[in-house]
Amino acid sequence: MPNQFDRRAFLKSLGAGITATALVGTTGCARELSQRPPNFVFFLIDDLGWVDTGVYGSTFYETPNIDRLASEGMRFTDAYAASPVCSPTRASIMTGKHPARLNITDWIGGSQRGELLPAEYEHQLAFEEVTIAEVLKEAGYSTGYFGKWHLGDTPFLPDSQGFDLNVGGTAAGQPASYFYPYKAEHGRSDFWDVPHLEDGRDGEYLTDRLTDEAIGFLEAQGDSPFLLYLSHYAVHTPIQSKGDLTEKYREKAESLPEPDGPDFISEHDRAFVKQHQDHAAYAGMVQSVDESIGRVLETIENLGLTDNTIVIFMSDNGGLTTIANRRSAPTAVLPLRAGKGWLYEGGIREPMIVKWPGVVEEGSLCSEPVISTDFFPTMLEMARIAQRPSLHQDGTSLVPLLRQEGRLDRNALYWHFPHYHGSGNRPSGAVRAGDYKLVEWFEDGQVELYNLADDIGESRDLSQSMPEKVGELTEMLHAWHRTVDARMPREDTVGS
Fold first, then answer.
1. Average pLDDT score over residue span 445-467
2. Which of the residues 87, 89, 323, 332 could staple to 107 if both were Cys, CB 3.0 to 4.6 A apart?
3. Which domains does the chain have, with CATH numbers?
């Protein structure tokens, strides 16, 4: 990894050095643009809820750039993270494997105890796993990672997992501060400090700075194909936005009509769920993310790369709506139930957009269930790289959906979260097959059944009236546990 002083020179060398290998498997000095490998820009937003953008229904947050991206690509209504927390989903994107198969089932560093001993899990993405960045790099791509990593500490950082460049990625799951110098105060541990950004200026905002760095990477590429992975720390805690944006949304919140119903409701008598979007600082963070996306897309356009650049937009888990025993969550994702940390829809259903110029119909909509493991095989097919099913075992290419040429050959999606979480959730698993979704609680084996087509808010448990469907989905879930060798929580034989 180059140090801060020589990073810009390193970027220039990337652009010059990879051109000769960019058109792997071709002859001659040039090809038509349509025959060149496509570029990839992957925006991964941390904790962004399903209804945290205008195009997905928010009337409080302002996201014109994300909304425009949706109008230029395909918007997915039933897209899922493979986990209700960050590290497992991030691992699933990198590998095309389910978190249960990788044994990364909780956010790294997040172990909590309860009635059961939570399942043991890995604290880094193993080198034995092949990442999408490694495959693309092998095919001649330049690869840059910017922002939150949270898949292990040194030596398991992005620049050892297929990325030529790592700016800001560490073992930490959030920054010490969103303002320069992005470090902890009062002599606290530097674990949360964001590295590689030491040459900033007072008042500089992390979302903006990561965008600056990503744009520098784009401008250095020349004719080489690239993967730009911009993994914003936002909108994760600490909830900090720029002062002018906070003030803008504070005034907007004060002008809102009096809401119907309470601001928080109870979830399982152990957590509170926010019901309205009115948090000024959080709204400012969302706007900064939207502005970042707009700046990157404008740079791509100015560089003449729009027609050959695929853009992917996704969140890593549900919005921060639900916190145990406190009324302090910053956002709401109604009509979905609960939020981050839970296997109800609010914790796993995500905003997702794919723009593929010349292929995806602009402004199209897809309602077929998809999941974060699907990105790996999808990107391989987009790049015309041979599929590697032994690697991306749990992913399915979304190209048929993107081309609107058919449906996916898959009968169910699965989730495994054998842990306790600060949102109040307890060890649980879930399966969705068609419109039906079953949630199983590992402490007592109780199950709940919902028909998402009729009840997206999961308010009507059908388990007592549909025992055959319960039996069918429970059997599917348990068989899948055996297939991926899922680690389960255990009884605490020692006692508390």
1. 98
2. 87
3. 36-409 (3.40.720.10)
